[in-house]
Design a protein that fits this description.
This protein is of the alpha+beta class. It has helices spanning about 15-25, 135-150, 210-230; strands at about 1-5, 30, 35-40, 45-50, 55, 70-90, 90-110, 115-130, 155-165, 170-180, 185-195, 200-210, 235, 245-255, 255-265. The longest helix has 18 residues, at about 210-230.
Amino acid sequence: MFPLHTNTFPSSAFELQRLLNESLQRSFVTDSPPVTVRERAYPHLEAITISLDGARLREDVPHPSPVSGETSPALEIDQFTLSASPLLVGPVTLDLSLAAHSVQLRQGKDSNDQIVLSLDHAADGNIEISLSQADLEALVFKLARDQAEKHGITVEGVQLKLRQENAHSVAAEVTVRARKLFLRASIRVTARLDLDDELNLKLSGLTCTGDGGMATVACGILTPYLQKVEGRKFPLMALPLGKVRLREVQLVVGDKVVVTAKFGSAS
């Protein structure tokens, strides 16, 4: 989904490129304009190339307004590519790549009567998202530390272990070393992560265990939070797909956690 922040459809490939750059730079800090548009016979384009390599997601990015009402054909693109390697998202550094052929975008209007482009068709394509286990562990540490500080607990360390169960599922175990005043405890949180065919990640089987009074207190604090996220799905790609369908979705654990999928419109 690409909000153009204008109520008039761009009259040329040059104008489209300018609007796409302005739109993306509202959400990402980049060293240079990220979008390049190559025209074939506008609105038929040879290529749109987006480079977010080294970009950083801004804090508090507003969620795009949903499209309301009818949509209409907007652009035909022979080759669409997006690269973000690396992309900084808060404390996490990840790599993202997407490539697609014979792409069709539609245009609609949001609640402010401004144009939003959305994916309608792609002959074929692939997407890959990856991040290192070290970065994922750092994210877990930050989340645990921020929650614990609210209760006067200091998190001294976090260890994350991931075990592949199948092409869509991973078992996770997080060991947290925590301290409150002179009391220390080791807390163990376990969970199962399942990736569905729409790139939604579901958390389930969340448990918290530990030894000693301090661990009991810590798990008592954590359990209501774990209950809130139990069974929840977190979209890894919040993108309306139109007629496009994902296939061959995989979640692979090694030095990096890698999500891959192919996609294309039904023939």
